[in-house]
Amino acid sequence: MRFPTFRTITLTAAATLVAGAALASGAERSRGETAGQARSGYTEQMRHENTERVRTRLKADGYELRRLEQEDGRFEAHALKNGKRFELYLDKGLNILRSKADD
Q1: Is the C or the N end of the chain the one with fewer CB within 10 Å?
Q2: Are 83 and 63 in contact (CB under 8 A)?
Q3: Is the pTM here over 0.70, yes or no?
Q4: Sheet of strand 84-90: strand arrangement
Q5: Is residue 94 a part of any domain in this protein?
Q6: Is residue 31 located within the same domain as residue 66?
Q7: pLDDT tens-digit profile of 43-58?
Q8: How far is CA 21 from CA 7, 16, 41, in A?
Q9: Same domain, 67 and 28
Q10: Which residues are in the PepSY domain (predicted)?
């Protein structure tokens, strides 16, 4: 009968620790957040609040928000106005930086 070597035991223990850490970080993201969002403290609640802020801002200008993406504090909104589709880019202060009508 052959006994496991010290190297085998060490590698098995290391693999178990890595797997445990991966499971633990997955549990922290179980609310549908990405790893970056979990680390930065960005939550689904914050995403919802930002969406509502952008929706309210665009509605005041006559747009109907269809889709919203956020990256690095800026927003890319797809919206309708007077039957036309628009792609809008907004900064953190919800100022429209650029507006592009889709043909």
Answers
A1: N
A2: no
A3: no
A4: 64-71, 74-81, 84-90, 96-101
A5: yes
A6: no
A7: 888 888 989 999 999 9
A8: 21, 9, 19
A9: no
A10: 9-92
44 phi/psi in degrees, rounded to 5: -60, -35
* Tens-place pLDDT, residues 58-69: 999 999 999 999
Confidence band, pLDDT 50/70/90 cuts, at residue 40:
low
Percent of all residues in the chain with a pLDDT value above 70, rounded to a whole number = 69
Cα–Cα distances in angstroms (integers) from residue 25 to residues 14, 18, 80, in the given order: 17, 11, 39
Q: Is 73 exposed, middle or buried (0-12, 13-18, 19+ CB in 10 A)?
A: exposed
For residue 65, the cross-strand partners are 79
In 4-60, the DSSP E strands lie at none
Q: Which residue has the tokens 């504090």?
A: 73
Task: Kindly state whether residue 1 falls inside one of the protein's structural domains.
Answer: no
| 96 and 71 together in one domain | yes
Mean pLDDT of 16-25: 66
